[in-house]
Design goal:
Distance between the termini: 40 Å
Strand content: 25-35%
Largest sheet: 6 strands, mixed
Bound molecules: adenosine-5'-triphosphate, magnesium ion
Number of strands: 14
Structural class: alpha/beta
CATH class of the largest domain: Alpha Beta
Radius of gyration: 23 Å
Length: 385
């Protein structure tokens, strides 16, 4: 089954199939599933299977003031249930504003925000409060309460919800175990590393058993190693709890590592959206191409070898990787192909290959060669003409 097409009916298999009982956190997981089964059933997820959990329709948001800022313009987006959905774009693109419109921390001027079958901008204050309990949020700078211990921070949303003390204690212990902080329950935020603080943030966000986790730059304040461990935890949660995660970031590497799909924002507009593997290998919009170019050139560090050569990036998905396309190209076209760099990456578990090559030859032959490659299912992107 493709990522993002996880039927929520898989939850039933989870409950029935004893094989899954070996999974880590099994007790917590099954309790979570049992408790939420009715919630999902009522919303028709078991019947729809692979529906969209979040639908944004034509969202517009302007910040009034001396200099009015149009932060979002006509954004329509569908986020499938069970996915990790990335939102990327340069600073000021409107990523945080878009994320905050999902739980109505920002009210859009116009347009609709649907979460499951609920029109979020149609809710009154009390309904909105209870809808928000189903949407956890984590932040770049963790936003922990410094005067409270780890335990107190995780318990905070449960206290607000008036949860029974015994239930609350048990839930805090379960969550601490889930995020690997059982031995830190009595520590205060200043006694924790950045990664541990974010784990507290994640546990706190999961306290009210949300169906969606909204993450605003969750790893931007962390070093690369800690980033990896927090991303691993988010993936773990996504897979085990089938929690839908919307993840705002400006780091392409984060998108590549954990997201199923991605939306590219620029100047408050949606430039492109789709499965990560498609956007990364065949970016259609200039905005996505720009982001990728920066990302890839930073990692590949290759440049043209001859002044009239054309530097191109070729991407091969798994099924194409075994075919001798380059030798076919050289035989069938009058071009020289100079291979400068090659690597195989993983994108959400699926391998894809990248080759940086320089084409030399008459311009019309180079154009024909690129057409040939594209016709054979290879992604072609011109890096330097
Ligand atoms: N509360 C606010 N009042 C006025 N303008 C705002 C407010 N919040 C955001 N903006 C403006 O809206 C635009 C989008 O901001 P937003 O924070 O959504 O961008 P972003 O993509 O998250 O950027 P970054 O990557 O820097 O976090 C920016 O021009 C910003 O200055
Ligand atoms: Mg932001």
């Amino acid at each position: 089954m493709k990522p993002g097409n996880h039927c929520l009916s898989e939850r039933c298999q989870f409950q029935l199939n004893p094989r899954f009982r070996e999974m880590r956190g099994e007790a917590n997981l099954f309790r979570f599933l049992d408790r939420n089964h009715l919630f999902f059933r009522r919303r028709g997820f078991f019947i729809q299977g692979c529906g969209n959990l979040i639908r944004l329709q034509n969202l517009t948001k302007t910040f009034a003031g001396k200099d009015e800022v149009r932060a979002l313009t006509g954004i329509s987006l569908e986020i499938p249930a069970g996915q990790i959905y990335g939102i990327i774009g340069p600073s000021g693109a409107g990523k945080s504003t878009l994320l905050r419109c999902i739980n109505m921390l920002e009210r859009p001027d116009s347009g609709e925000v649907w979460v499951a079958d609920t029109l979020m901008n149609g809710l009154g204050p009390q309904e909105l409060r209870s809808a928000r309990k189903k949407m956890g949020m984590i932040f770049q700078h963790f936003n922990l309460l410094n005067s409270r211990t780890v335990s107190g921070n995780i318990a905070f949303p449960l206290e607000l919800a008036g949860t029974d003390k015994r239930v609350m204690r048990r839930r805090v212990e379960e969550l601490a175990e889930l995020v690997g902080l059982t031995d830190k329950l009595q520590a205060y935020p200043h006694q924790l590393s950045g990664g541990q603080k974010q784990r507290v943030g994640i546990a706190r966000a999961l306290a009210t058993e949300p169906t969606v986790l909204l993450c605003d730059e969750p790893t931007s304040a962390l070093d690369p190693e800690t980033t990896s461990s927090v991303l691993e935890l988010l993936q773990d949660i996504n897979e085990k709890l089938q929690l839908t995660i919307v993840l705002v970031t400006h780091e392409m590497a984060v998108i590549q590592e954990v997201c199923h799909s991605v939306a590219v924002l620029e100047d408050g507009r949606l430039k492109e959206a789709g499965p990560v593997v498609e956007v990364f290998t065949r970016p259609k919009s200039e905005a996505a191409q720009r982001l990728l170019q920066g990302f890839l050139s930073a990692r590949f560090e290759v440049s043209r070898q001859s002044p009239d050569g054309t530097l191109i990036r070729l991407t091969f998905l798994e099924e194409r990787a075994n075919q001798p396309i380059i030798s076919k190209l050289i035989r069938s076209h009058q071009v020289d192909v100079n291979i400068l760099f090659g690597r195989i990456d993983q994108m959400k578990g699926a391998p894809f290959g990248t080759l940086m090559v320089e084409l030399a030859g008459p311009p019309e032959q180079k154009a024909a060669a690129m057409e040939f490659l594209e016709a054979n299912g290879v992604g072609v992107e011109v890096m330097e003409r």
